[in-house]
């Protein structure tokens, strides 16, 4: 028997496809069952985002003429293009999806990454895949099932959004192209995620690689899209899956063939991932786990330093991100200034976010809102580590030492509160330093710093919600993600969509002062900060009173 | 001797599941107390109440004179805990984890830490994620054993250890007892408890079904006797011996079990029949345990322990 003499590793390569995929449907059903809330809710949110935003914009700019006057100079403005991607045509339809094509493609990609990671590296990291893999389950089944589920989520979000836009009476081919834009980015990210979860050997490492990739791709296409067509820099945009989404040019050129790139990236990524999977051990990655020091440094001595140490990568990553983001925002201020003082542009910018001041100010204010939401998301993730520690059993280990519950809770909530302040201040400082070197009209150091710091109360309020839920009802703490998404979308889209005032008032992001141009309104800031403090305090009290484990 | 841990009438329910149903427990100061029971009997729940992680629905618990729920922080200065399912921080090395836990508890004995790392043959440089179950257990054990506290709470501490390391653990446990420290050792590994513990409590479905020293518990259970006789006994006579059960006679050989109080009389009777071979086997902890689990009758335990 030749098979008996071959080493077992090479034996695996001769295994037929059907055997490698044994159990695919069982694993797929298990994954779908576990995501029965996450996937439908995310898809629904994305569809509401695209269709709701389009409907609101169409109400404001119903005709091509109205849209074209608004869009006339936007098309040439690199800062808008950097944010939202190329503007395909001066029509009402194109204007209606200006905000959602790129942002939605990004969010769809995030969903794809989250779903793939959840059912692959996370399962492996926590030892559940070992249990599953010892059953009658082919080696390829878990990865292919996760990939299939993520692809299905992407297809649903994209196709339903496209159908919804067509149902609004928008151009049929354009609506199909819109779906193609999201599909292309989403499917490509599914492929990339499949590789990423093979490379990193931990859940957190996979998240770092994956989100880092998406951030880099967004930055790459922002740079490429704001360059002149025909230049090498502009051509670089074809290297980014998010660049592809913009270059479909829905409601303009309608390049639906771009979808091929997404499908190729998906299949190519999956092929690479499966090849790596066949060559690695369960639990291992390509990037090996390093060994650590024999003794702990003097700083690692209490709950606070432990929490900070665990978040080291997050802290450094966000710090670097803020500096890079600040440089990007600051350097684009020059382009904003080159625009004519056309009242049409003002309308557009105001509808996109800000309200008062020079174009530079409005632009900075808009960017700050986005960054504040992102920083709040980082804050939620840090607070949720309290719940994660409780679930894994690490909380029990610490709480069985003289570390009191209040200190343990405070360490997890205090870090995001402080970190968010540092990050926002960092952004403001960098924008304030870089902007004035590009154009004298840019807000200076002090106004920029004040503007970013003034957004903190909204960030803290979101962190407070996470703290309350983590303290009182840990099972429901992940709902904070939904709270952030809804409040942010309400504040961004709400004024356009004629949402009722009380709904707008519920969103902390509606109450931010329109800095750097307008006046700082202390009352909402103070009230939001106090509410945030009360939420954190209530969370701490509840945490002292309940069972831990 | 005073009690280090006193528990009475402890109740804890999770939804409709009753985890503890009026549990009583007394652990004396300076003893190694075995806390025996199968999975799901309520051992870990009891320990979590004793650590102040869970709040009891009813009943009282006192640990080192303190209320574990109210004075948790204060109490935790005096104890070290090894959880049943040891998880470590994935990004911290074993050495860092030991130092961190030691510092959280207020310091470790450096010399003892070094000695324990050596004895358990622990590679301190590996990251938490890279350790096997047994090695994770060793990290937690070294951290707990190296700290200078009067009470150790160990929840199935040897579950992942190999026999050599179990031996090391046993000798460390003896050292702890000689040192006058109190240990609550939860386990379902009976040999471990049998060797190390002064007293045991057996928990079943959230209640203590028996508690005492091994000698006391043994007294309630029958001793097994196997004798080869020069003048065989006939089965009817043998069955009539007072306090003797489960008699089988197979030619010259007779096997039976006998209540502790009647052992002397039985041995005397056997002596009169010319004993050519004799084994007397006190009940193992397995038998004690099974006896309390399978019903009130030790017969059941015997059938379980030695299926025909």
Largest sheet of chain B: 6 strands, mixed
Rounded Rg of chain B: 23 Å
Strand % of chain B is 25-35%
- The total domain count of chain A is 2
Order of secondary-structure elements of chain B: EEEHEHEHHHEHEHEEHEHEEHEHH
- What is the CATH fold-level name of the largest domain in chain B? Rossmann fold
> Could you tell me the number of beta strands of chain A?
0
Tally of discrete structural domains of chain B = 2
Radius of gyration of chain A: 24 Å
Helix content of chain B: 25-40%
Are there runs of chain A of 5+ residues with pLDDT below 50, and where?
1-7
Distance between the termini of chain A: 54 Å
Give the uncertain stretches of chain B in residue-range form.
296-308
Overall shape of chain B: elongated
* Main beta sheet strand tally, sense and closure of chain A: none
How much of the residues of chain A is beta strand, in percent? under 5%
Q: What's the quaternary structure here?
A: heterodimer
> Overall pLDDT of chain B, averaged?
86
Total helical elements of chain B: 12
Overall helicity of chain A: over 70%
Structural class of chain B: alpha/beta
Any key phrases for this structure?
heterodimer; A: 549 residues; mainly alpha; 73% helix; globular; disordered N terminus; B: 308 residues; alpha/beta; Rossmann fold; 2 domains; 6-stranded mixed sheet; 13 strands; Polyketide antibiotic transporter (chain A); membrane (chain A); transmembrane (chain A)
Please explain how this structure is put together.
The complex is a heterodimer of chains A (549) and B (308). Chain A is an all-alpha fold. Chain A has 2 domains: 19-54 and 99-287, no CATH class; 301-549, no CATH class. Helix content of chain A is 73%, strand content 0%. Chain A contains 28 helices and no strands. In chain A, helix 5 (38-60) packs antiparallel against helix 9, helix 7 packs antiparallel against helix 14 (203-225) and helix 12 runs antiparallel to helix 13 (172-199). The model of chain A is unreliable at 1-7 (pLDDT under 50). Chain B has 12 helices and 13 strands. By secondary structure, chain B is of the alpha/beta class. In chain B, helix 4 (110-119) runs antiparallel to helix 5. The longest helix of chain B is centred in the middle third of the chain and has 16 residues, at 163-178. Chain B has 2 domains: 3-211, Rossmann fold, CATH 3.40.50; 218-305, Alpha-Beta Plaits (2-Layer Sandwich). In chain B, strands 5-6-7-3-8-9 form a 6-stranded mixed beta sheet, with helices on both faces. Chain B has a 4-stranded antiparallel beta sheet with strand order 11-12-10-13. Chain B has a 3-stranded antiparallel beta sheet with strand order 2-1-4, with helices on one face. Mean pLDDT of chain B is 86; it is low at 296-308.
């Amino acid at each position: 028997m030749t098979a008996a003499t071959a080493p077992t590793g090479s034996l695996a390569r001769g295994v037929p496809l059907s055997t490698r995929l044994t159990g695919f449907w069982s694993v797929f059903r298990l994954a779908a069952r576990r995501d029965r809330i996450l996937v439908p809710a995310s898809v629904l949110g994305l569809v509401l985002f695209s269709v709701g935003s389009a409907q609101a914009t169409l109400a404001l700019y119903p005709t091509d003429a109205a849209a074209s006057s608004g869009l006339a100079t936007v098309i040439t403005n690199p800062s808008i293009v950097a944010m939202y991607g190329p503007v395909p045509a001066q029509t009402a339809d194109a204007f209606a999806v200006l905000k959602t094509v790129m942002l939605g493609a990004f969010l769809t990609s995030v969903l794809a990454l989250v779903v793939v990671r959840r059912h692959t590296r996370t399962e492996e990291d926590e030892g559940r895949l070992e249990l599953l893999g010892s059953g009658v389950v082919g080696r390829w089944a878990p990865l292919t099932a996760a990939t299939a589920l993520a692809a299905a989520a992407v297809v649903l979000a994209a196709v339903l959004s496209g159908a919804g836009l067509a149902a609004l009476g928008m151009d049929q081919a354009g609506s199909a192209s819109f779906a193609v834009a999201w599909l292309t980015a989403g499917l490509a990210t599914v492929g990339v995620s499949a590789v990423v979860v093979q490379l990193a050997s931990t859940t957190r490492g996979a998240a770092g690689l994956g989100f880092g990739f998406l951030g880099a791709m967004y930055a790459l296409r922002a740079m490429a899209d704001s360059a002149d067509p025909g230049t090498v820099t502009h051509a670089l945009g074809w290297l980014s899956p998010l660049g592809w989404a913009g270059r479909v040019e829905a409601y303009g050129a309608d390049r639906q063939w771009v979808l091929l790139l997404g499908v190729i990236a998906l299949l190519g990524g999956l092929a690479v991932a499966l090849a790596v999977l066949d060559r690695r051990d369960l639990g291992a990655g390509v990037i090996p786990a390093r060994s650590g020091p024999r003794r702990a440094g003097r700083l690692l001595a209490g709950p606070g330093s432990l929490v900070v140490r665990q978040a080291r990568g997050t802290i450094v990553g966000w710090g670097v991100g803020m500096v890079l983001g600040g440089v990007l925002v600051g350097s684009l201020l020059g382009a904003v200034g080159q625009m004519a003082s056309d009242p049409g542009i003002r309308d557009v910018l105001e509808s996109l976010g800000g309200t008062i001041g020079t174009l530079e100010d409005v632009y900075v204010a808009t960017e700050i809102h986005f960054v504040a939401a992102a920083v709040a998301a980082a804050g939620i993730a840090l607070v949720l580590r309290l719940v994660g520690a409780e679930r894994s059993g690490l909380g029990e280990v610490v709480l069985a030492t003289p570390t009191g519950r209040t200190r343990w809770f405070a360490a997890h909530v205090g870090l995001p509160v402080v970190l968010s302040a540092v990050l926002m201040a960092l952004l403001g400082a960098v924008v304030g330093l870089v902007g004035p070197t590009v154009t004298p009209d840019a807000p200076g150091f002090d106004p920029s710093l004040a503007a970013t710091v003034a957004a903190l109360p909204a960030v803290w309020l979101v962190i407070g919600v996470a703290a309350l839920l983590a303290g009182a009802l840990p099972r429901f703490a992940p709902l904070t993600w939904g709270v952030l998404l809804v409040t942010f979308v309400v504040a961004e889209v709400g004024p356009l969509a004629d949402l009722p005032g009380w709904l707008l008032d519920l969103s902390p992001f509606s109450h931010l002062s329109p800095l750097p141009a307008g006046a700082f309104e202390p009352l909402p800031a103070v009230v939001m900060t106090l509410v945030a403090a009360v939420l954190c305090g209530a969370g701490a009290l509840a945490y002292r009173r309940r069972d831990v484990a | 001797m005073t009690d280090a841990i006193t528990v009475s009438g402890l109740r804890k329910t999770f939804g409709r599941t009753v985890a503890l149903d009026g549990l009583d427990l007394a652990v004396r100061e300076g003893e190694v107390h075995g806390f025996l029971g199968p999975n799901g009997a309520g051992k870990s729940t009891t320990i979590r109440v004793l650590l102040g992680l869970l709040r009891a629905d009813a009943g009282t618990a006192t640990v080192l004179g303190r209320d574990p729920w109210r004075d948790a922080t204060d109490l935790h200065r005096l104890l070290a805990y090894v959880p049943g399912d040891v998880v470590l921080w994935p990004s911290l090395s074993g050495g860092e984890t030991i130092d961190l836990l030691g510092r959280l508890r207020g310091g470790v004995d450096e010399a003892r830490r070094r000695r324990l790392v050596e004895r358990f043959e622990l590679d301190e440089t590996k990251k938490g994620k890279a350790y096997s179950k047994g090695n994770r257990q060793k990290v937690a054990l070294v951290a707990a054993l190296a700290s200078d506290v009067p009470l150790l709470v160990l929840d199935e501490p040897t579950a992942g250890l190999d026999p050599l390391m179990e031996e090391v653990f046993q000798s460390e446990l003896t050292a702890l007892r000689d040192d006058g420290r109190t240990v609550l050792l939860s386990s379902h590994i009976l040999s471990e408890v049998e060797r190390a513990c002064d007293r045991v409590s057996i928990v079943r479905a959230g209640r203590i079904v028996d508690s005492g020293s091994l000698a006391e518990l043994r007294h309630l259970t029958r001793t097994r006797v196997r004798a080869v006789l020069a003048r065989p006994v006939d089965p009817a006579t043998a069955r009539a011996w007072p306090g003797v059960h489960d008699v089988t006679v197979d030619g010259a050989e007779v096997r039976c079990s006998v209540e502790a109080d009647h052992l002397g009389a039985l041995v005397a009777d056997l002596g009169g029949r010319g004993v050519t071979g004799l084994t007397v086997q006190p009940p193992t902890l397995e038998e004690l345990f099974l006896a309390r689990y399978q019903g009130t009758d030790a017969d059941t335990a015997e059938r379980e322990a030695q299926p025909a």
